[in-house]
């Protein structure tokens, strides 16, 4: 996505008083101009800015970012070399070290729990407790086998040992527990996401396959704007601002909004 389009979206986000903007992927740190993108957004936008990354080039980006981001979300699969090479092939210790030094007010570790890594859960939790990280545990959207259910039950059982588990209802419902003053464990699951059924989703034939269940105005490089992952509805005419306003008109008026920038293809505006 061109820097000019990202800058335009940042300006619009500021104009519409959208409180949060997130850069996601793909893998955003693969872009050589990512630092320029972040600086451009910071110059035009006064809200919270976050970055989601696998940490592959986070250490290279860090010295170029002067103003701290609000949040950095580091996606990791495992500490085990045989496992992480199967997924992201990014050394987790190198990535976590880079995260530790990156200028951000909040730092989260995102882990998708699968059969390959669920036995590392306690080691991952211990790392987050010792390094003051919030841990976000997620599950794949698919037909679950009996073993998948056993894994999920195991995760919930282990989380329940850490303290009182509370249900958080928001754009993405979750379970959460405060392990310490500086570490929280958050569990997100497709079954929890399915609790949300916004007005534009009620008649959507693709909603059953939608993981996020979050209204999102995605701006594509060709200028098309869509309010959902499956592009059931699209806006192709008018200015970017008008297309975004038309998209927001489909959302419930009481829903707060944030922006995701999905590198390199989409810019995503979605409810908090």
TrEMBL record:
The lineage of its organism: Bacteria, Bacillati, Bacillota, Clostridia, Lachnospirales. CDD domains: Radical_SAM (cd01335). This is 4Fe-4S single cluster domain-containing protein. InterPro entries: Aldolase_TIM, Radical_SAM_PqqE_MftC-like, rSAM_sf.
